[in-house]
Amino acid sequence: MKTRIETTFDTLRQAGKKALIPYIMAGDPNPQVTVSLMHQLVEHGANIIEVGLPFSDPMADGPVIAHAAERALAAGTSTSDAIAMIAEFRKTNTTTPVLVMGYLNPVEIIGYDKFAKQCADAGVDAILMVDLPPKEAGDFPKQLTARTDNPMNQIFLLAPTTDAARRAKVIENCSGFIYYVSLKGVTGSAALDTQVVREQVAQIKRETDIPVCVGFGIRDGVSAKALGAVADGVIIGSELVKNFAGIAADDTLATEQAVAALLAKMDELKSALDTLD
User: Fold this and answer.
1) For residues 72 and 69, what is the distance between their CA atoms, to the nearest angstrom?
2) Are 100 and 128 in contact, with CB atoms under 8 Å apart?
3) Which of 89, 163, 200, 215 is the most exposed, having the fewest neighbouring CB atoms within 10 Å of its CB?
């Protein structure tokens, strides 16, 4: 049984299109925004949505997303709350894949089986735990895809510094798509060399048929188009999330303006990807 993510990439491939995958932090700038924003992202071209699970020590994230996690936590958003938001989204959208991205500490506390069941019950389609290396994942990836209630994918990261042995291990354990980190550094870093990324993605694609999507450092339609030309999709986070910086949780007008700016960026990215030959 194919997951929603696998079906989405099949459909995009047949249409000659690339996936646009926006990232938002659950509960940022307040818990009331997230579900509505997810629906708006779909309306503005999102093929898959990546939802961040708030965590106090997000080691792979730069200051923009780290501060987003702080805002979400300050607003009272827990891991379970974030998953409940996805369940609410699923009540009226049963087709758009949703990926959750987070860190192992809350999962260790909840328990792997319980966490996986919570995600499956909510309609989550894939799990990315940044600090879960494939060699330590055990049977967890296979347990996700083998679920009969709601099969899910386990997403792993590859980076410019990944050696051949680890790359092979990721390819062996990953499903849905491979998340390629476009640069050495944290989310939102600026030093993006699109030519180097294109070469690295091409190398990965010679070794596997699993779709490869690129994230970290994509800021505009130009960079999205350059990487979309070789990858199967692009992931954008900090450039969207930064719109919520400095907004008070109860400032309705500022929040509405931030959402409008975020969606305008989505339109720019979607237009750029749609112009790919």
Assistant:
1) 5
2) yes
3) 163
Least confident among 17-21, 152-156, 157-161: 157-161
Burial of 97 (C-beta count, 10 Å sphere; 0-12/13-18/19+): buried
Alpha helices by DSSP H, listed for the chain, are 4-15, 34-43, 63-74, 79-90, 104-110, 112-122, 140-145, 164-173, 194-207, 221-228, 238-241, 252-274
Judge whether 255 and 207 are in contact, CB under 8 Å.
Answer: no
Q: pLDDT confidence of 217, banded at 50, 70, 90?
A: confident
Report the distance separating Cα 272 and Cα 274, nearest Å. 5
3-class secondary structure, 55 = coil
Phi, psi torsion values for 110, nearest 5 degrees: -70, -40
Residues identified as active-site:
50, 61
CB-CB neighbours of 11 under 10 Å = 12
Decide if 140 contacts 112 (C-beta within 8 A): yes
Length of the chain in terms of residues written = 277
| Contact (CB, 8 A) for 23 and 242 | no
CA distance 177 to 171: 9
* pLDDT tens sequence across 42-100: 999 999 999 999 998 877 678 899 999 999 999 999 999 999 999 999 999 999 999 99
Q: Which two tokens mark 239?
A: 């450039």
Place of tokens 């307040």: 30
Torsion angle, alpha carbons of 83, 126, 193, 41, to 10: -50
Structure tokens, 11: 């459909």
What pLDDT, on the 0 to 100 scale, is given for residue 2? 87
Concatenated DSSP letters for 250-272?
T-HHHHHHHHHHHHHHHHHHHHH
Q: Rounded to two decimals, what is the model's pTM?
A: 0.94
